[in-house]
Design a protein that fits this description.
The protein is mostly helical. It has five helices and no strands.
């Protein structure tokens, strides 16, 4: 069985997503909605990692594709040097959305395998995580839609340098 490969990928994706949410919450603490939601979403990802652990131990863990966050956030760091705080915020939200989508499709794949294996416990874990993941993606999409016009149309606003995690 190859389920261990995807469990490992999902385990790593959720751990990276938790780290990314916490990073964005800290970098954008001046924006209360971002700080609050990203902190909450990061804690959900931490819980997902813990809930996956028994399944990872049972079925093995394939290679973990870590480092996605560093790759995705690299261009936001370059934008920070240009001084566009609003554009950095938009890119951070965009990257979080991409990472959350990675988790979304991985949860779906694992749920399908759980159904095939008739593993109700794993299936329920996937369904709960997908519900939360949907809320993450929906909030990110709404926040991106809110900030995109003023970020891309209104001239940039200088802000503090943002570091890559």
């Amino acid at each position: 069985m190859q389920i261990g490969t995807y469990l490992g990928m999902l385990h790593g994706s959720e751990a990276e997503l938790a780290r990314a949410f916490r990073f964005v919450a800290k970098q954008h603490a001046a924006e209360p909605d971002i700080e609050h939601e990203c902190t909450l979403f990061g804690s959900w990802c931490d819980e997902h990692v813990l809930k996956l652990q028994p399944f990872v131990q049972q079925d093995g863990e394939g290679s973990r594709d870590l480092g996605m966050m560093r790759f995705l956030f690299r261009d936001a760091a370059a934008l920070a040097h240009e001084g566009s705080r609003m554009l950095v915020t938009l890119r951070h939200l965009h990257h979080l959305w991409l990472m959350a989508q990675e988790s979304h499709i991985s949860w779906l794949i694992i749920e399908q395998a759980a159904q095939g294996l008739r593993n109700e416990s794993l299936e329920l874990t996937c369904q709960e995580a997908q519900r939360r993941n949907h809320l993450q993606v929906s909030w990110l999409k709404s926040r991106i839609k809110q900030s995109a016009p003023q970020t891309l149309i209104v001239s940039g606003t200088a802000g503090p340098t943002v570091l890559v995690p």
